[in-house]
## 1
Amino acid sequence: MRDIFLGVNIDHVATLRNARGTAYPDPVHAAEIAERAGADGITIHLREDRRHIIDRDVEILRQTIQTRMNLEMAVTEEMLVIASRIKPQFCCLVPEKREELTTEGGLDVAGQQHKIRLACGRLAAEGIEVSLFIDADKRQIEAAAESGAGYIEIHTGQYAEAHNESEQQAELARIIEGVKYAHGLGLKVNAGHGLTYHNVKPVAAIAEIVELNIGHAIVGRAVFDGLAKAVADMKRLMLEARG
Ligand SMILES: CC(=O)[C@@H](O)[C@H](O)COP(=O)(O)O
Ligand SMILES: NCC(=O)COP(=O)(O)O
């Protein structure tokens, strides 16, 4: 598949804003720049502790995003009520621990299948496409296929944080196997977490992947090169990887 889509996660524009409680930089402005620069979608993670994206951002972005909103959220009643009201095009269900610095692993779908299936049903009833953020683990992939979600997002964090080349190659092999297995089960497959300008190409080259969600590296590069160039450069690398 030639096309690969880029979902730009703008969480950390909000991190910078919240660092001093100012109105700037505004994630709403960031989303517009990212879309003009080639983002195929905008991803935001409304965390329970609102450490970066806040409810105001979600409300306004739902009215201003021209591509599509991918709302990442924990599987809680609070978030399901918010998502049902906001009706983003996509919801990505992620695990959340208040004390974590960032997402540490994939959602345990297999261990809470009934809860996840109910959540998927509630979101689907609102016309929302559901993606489950999971590790490249066959048991989790099979559980996701049974959950009613149309998509999964393979967690690429261990690949991104590998300590050496052989570990990274092993993690990449695990991702490739998981993507192909999920695709074979009829799931649409995205991937993300920790992807950078230096490690994105081998993942983007996996033909069955529909979309990569990338944020921290893009916002980091934007500090030096500007957001538009940071987004365009990442998109170019992804398309180059597809050949
Ligand atoms: C689920 C995932 O991997 C990220 O999109 C998530 O947003 C990471 O959390 P922070 O953005 O809070 O680092
Ligand atoms: N789900 C992954 C995402 O949205 C962005 O993760 P990161 O690039 O900020 O690590």
## 2
Amino acid sequence: MSLKRIVVLISGSGSNLQAIMDAIQSGQINGQIELVISNKADAYGLIRAKNAGIATCVIDHKAFDSRESFDLAVQQRIDTIEPDLVILAGFMRILSAGFVRHYSGRMLNIHPSLLPKYKGLHTHQRALAAADKEHGCTVHFVTEELDGGPLLVQAVVPVKTDDTEATLQARVHEREHIAYPLAVEWICADRIRVCEDGIYRDNELLPTSGFRLAYNEKTDSGASDATHS
Ligand SMILES: Nc1nc2c(c(=O)[nH]1)N[C@@H](CN(C=O)c1ccc(C(=O)N[C@@H](CCC(=O)O)C(=O)O)cc1)CN2
Ligand SMILES: NCC(=O)N[C@@H]1O[C@H](COP(=O)([O-])[O-])[C@@H](O)[C@H]1O
């Protein structure tokens, strides 16, 4: 099976980018990151990519007079790569309808909550404020509706009584670094199909909440809870 061509969009630290890079390096993911694009020039994820010899590009959204013109510039750069998969990894811009349609069915995002709870921003703060007993992250296909696309993988973490936003975020982050590579592994192995009635992994219809990883559960690919800070 030929390597899938991957483009990753970031805005910040890039720990999820690093987790996917590491999973490619270990042979878990049958893919190759061809380009990393950031809308922030100071994103540490750019350093991670450069250290790994991956091409990078900064497209500053503030340099454009509309969301659509920024999105078109990003799309035109992505399409020079002809990717099989576009991965949002901490990319902090809402994407316009045209951009999302252009990559329909081949664009993923990781969101720091158990969707459909807490779409948008400040998810850990909201979970703590609600005194939730559990929280987590979700890997989903990107659609025009913000954080509303089909759910592929969810990882659950407990919320502890003495949790702060930082401790909860760190616990979720660790599970993101398991969940995202797992989702990308399955897509790059052509095991995932998005159909009218839901998402199939092989011939198994996944729950509408996606494949659920319990806390500290090892993945079926045997990946450990490696950290990718
Ligand atoms: N059309 C879509 N665009 C994006 C999706 C999506 O599902 N559909 N996922 C987001 C990722 N995301 C949460 O997971 C998210 C990112 C950014 C924002 C947001 O409010 N951004 C503001 C700017 C915030 C900032 O610059 O700090 C904005 O774009 O005006 C909400 C949710 C990626 N895009
Ligand atoms: N709404 C989007 C959002 O908040 N995404 C979150 O940004 C962080 C990026 O971390 P990273 O840059 O270290 O991968 C991740 O925790 C991801 O869930």
